[in-house]
Structure formats: structure tokens, C-alpha cells
Amino acid sequence: MRPSPTAVRYASVLLAGTLAATGLTLAPATALPEPAATGATAPGIDFVDIEGDGGTTLKANVALPDGASADSARTYPLIVLPTSWGLPQIEYLAQAKKLADAGYVVVSYNSRGFWQSGGEIEVGGPEDVADASRVIDWALAHTPADKDRVGMGGVSYGAGISLLAAGHDPRIKAVTALSGWADLIGSIYSGRTQHLQAAGLLGGAGELTGRPSPELRQVLKDFTESNLDKEDEMIAWGKKRSPAAYLDRINDNGAAVMLGNAWSDSIFPPNQYADFYEKLRGPKRLEFRPGDHATPEATGLLGLPNDTWSHAHDWFDRYLKGEKNGIDTEPPVQLKSRSTGQYEGYGSWKEVPSGKRAIPLEGKKELKTGGDSGANGGTMFLTGLLDQFLKLPPVVSMPLLPRSRAAVWESERYGEDTRVRGTTKLHTTVAGTAESGTFYAYLYDVGPLGAGKLITHAPHTFHDRTPGKPFAVDLDLFSTAYDVPKGHRLAVVIDTVDPLYAEHNPDGARLEFTSPAADPSRMTVPTGKPTDAG
């Protein structure tokens, strides 16, 4: 079943905004001219056809170092770049040329099911993983690529496929996975809540630029309609496509893995990357920056100076060329603060918070469901871009939030700057008048005039609960790095409507939040050192 025309139009707007951020434009999949198989359309770039898994044709392009040829006696390290979801094979041309100039053979290909590549969209399924290996095979047979120095990388969909491939093909020695996923279900179904704007974008973009498989269409239908009878099947489908499920294989194969993501990524939130990073055993690096999905990498796709791509090149240089460029000697966790724009280095993700503040959630708060209080996580892409470039997160007036729609707790004013670093955790007790329900938790920085700037948030949904019977909930909010100025407060807000997500509150339902003496409710905020960590 295809998404409704409204969903497709909505996804088109979101996708156009994303492509605008990367300097690309959207056209129907049939409109992209197909280059001749061996015709060079840009200096040093040849367009070719590669036979993927099952004989599927993958449209690809190849960039070689100056003077290199297929029959060259000298070999060069190889980098394979699968394209992002919905983007054509020209996505990486600027980066491919830079890498080729630096002495790499670079093969970029359109992931199966998109644009002129054959097959159907499998969302990182076995066919996509096999395609990656077939592309490596082709490069080793048709270019002066070195079989012992193979790397993979990419943005978004290309990042996920690269990580999956690293768990199945031991030839891959280095990976740069930018704005990707390690846990697909943990990304778009966190808190057991459908991330509807994200799912709408992916589904709509897939229909506009490719050919979703019947399985994908059914999964999206069951997902968006909250078909709980199929929940176990959907989770199994997502696990099969999650690099975290192949962690042991990735570790055994030993690829050096660099992960990069945005704090406000509205498709693949940062928590799932941080969890995955901590479990990697080989050479590894984790970078988080302000922005939304794929926006930190966007200028690099145009060939402009870009931290993310610069570090990715250094990563390949270190682990494919053996250059001692220092990227492996600096702290492996690099965080760019949303407030200062400065990098902070840490020895591990666990070292990011050096302390914590607990905000008691005292008393009893009863909420009417179904009405938007005004507190929400923002709008896909727009919110993250405003935060990235203008340091403008979503803002609400704390005194004006309707208390019948929003439960609000505030801390005292802090006498010093407070650095929020890492993952904020909510513990509360809730009872609903129905067996299912949804709420959203937010943490705000509140200034002297009552204006609250969103620091982080997360959704939570429950099912099959006894109406009226309280139960405990533990919820991790999305990780972040944000500085709360001296004299400001922290505020916790809980409400029941957020346009980013699905809602499972029946009409007329109410939610009650309490703080039992034996198990007090609280928001635990991770804090960092008052000066940069290194």
C-alpha cells in the first residue's frame, strides 16, 4: 500500500529541504540522464554499471588517482561509498574527486531500488549487504585497487549499509559512518513510539525516487497504523537491518569504525550510536555536532570545507594508508557543544558526564490528553538547522503553558553555568484511564523572563496496562551537549501531543503522574566539568 497523497506531498517538502541543505535538487527518478557506461562526465570520473547481488544492475561512478589505470602495476587503497536514501549517484562526486586526488580508488554507487539502479529498496537487507561485497569484487577486478586496503563510508543510508557490510565482509578495514544508524528500531521506534515525521519522509522519498519492495510497503503500513499484532515481526525486520545485531562480527572482522551524527538528528537520534560505540572493540571514534539529519555533512558534499569530511579523510588515511596523522592519538569521543560551537574530547562516552543534577518531580499532576500544550520537539530539519546555524532551539513560555495539558516542574535558579552533557534520564510513576497511552518528556533551559529553550526530549508509549493502576517508567531522553547560563533554571515538562510522533491516547483519556515516597519521581540531568574536557 502506498502512502496517502498527503503523506507523499509532506515527504516531498521535507526531502526538498534536505536536498537543499546538501545543494542537490529533487527530480523524478526517471528524469536523471543515464551516462554512457564508460563515458567520463567529469574530470577523473567514469560512470559504470556494476552487477550486484542476483544480477541486479547498480549504477556507479569511479574516480582514480591521477595517472592510475586498470592495468597499472601500482595499487591504491579503495573506498566504496553507497548513496544516501533517495539521492542519485552524483551525491559523492566532490568527495570522490578529493579522495582520488589524495591517492584513493573511489567507487560510489546508487543503492539498489533507487534511481537507475535495479532491484527494489530493501532498507539494508541481505541484498544490500551482498551488493557492497559485489562492488568491492568489481573494483578489485577492474581498477588498481588494493585488496588489503578496503574502506567503506557514506551518509545516512550509505552509513548504515557500510556498517552492515563491515560485519559481513572481512576485507573492509575502515568505515566512516556519518548520520547513520546502529539500531533501526531504536531510532524510529524509540520509547515504543512511532516517529511519524521520520517514517513519512522515508516512505515518501522512497516512493518518489525509487521502488520500495512489497515487504517495505507492508512494514511501513503496519508501522504507521500501529498494528500491534505485527509488532514482533516489525522489530525482527528492523533487527535484521541493524548493525548492532552484528556487533560480534564487526568486532571479529576488526574494521576501524568512525561514527558521526548530529545532536538533533530527527531520523537517527544520537543515543543509539553512543550505545553502539561503547561496545566496539577495535579502533573507533565518535563525533557529535549540532544539526539535524545529515546537515553536518552537507557542505562537504558540495566540496566545501567541512569538519566531518576532513576527519573522515584522516580516518581513512590512518587506517588504509597507515599515516600517523594523530587522529588515533587524540581523545576518541569528540563532542561539539550546541552552545559554544567548540569541540570537547573524552576518553569514552561514559566519561562525558562528570556529575549530575536531580530535579524532583513532586506532587500529583493530572493531564487531559489530546491537546497540544505548545511544548514539542519541533519540526524535522527546520528545528535542527536553526539550532545548528543560529543556536535557536524551540522556545516556549513556561508561565503560559496550560497546566491541564502540561505537567511542569522547575528547579531553583543555578548560581553558576551548568553544562548538560550526555543522556538525561526520567524516572516517574504514571497511571492512565486507558490501557494504552503516550506522553512526551522535555527538558528546558528557562531564563529570567520565563522563556524556555528546549535542551532535549523523548517520547514514551505504553500498552496493555491496567487502567488506574500506577506503574514506573524509566525513559532516556536524547543525548546532547548544551550550556545553561548562570541564573537560569531547568524545567521538566510532560505533555501528550507532539507532531513529530504518533499518539496512542484514546479520546477523553487522562494521565496521572505521581511521586511515591518509596520510589520518588525525578529527572536526572548529566552535567559536565565547568571547563572543556580536553
Automatic annotation (TrEMBL):
SMART domains attached to this UniProt entry: PepX_C (SM00939)
Ranges for region Disordered: 511-534
Residue stretches spanning the membrane: none
Pfam families per record: Peptidase_S15, PepX_C
Stated family: Belongs to the AB hydrolase superfamily.
Signal peptide region: 1-31
Name under which the protein is recorded: CocE/NonD family hydrolase
Residues in Xaa-Pro dipeptidyl-peptidase C-terminal domain copies: 313-523
Xref: NCBIfam families: CocE_NonD
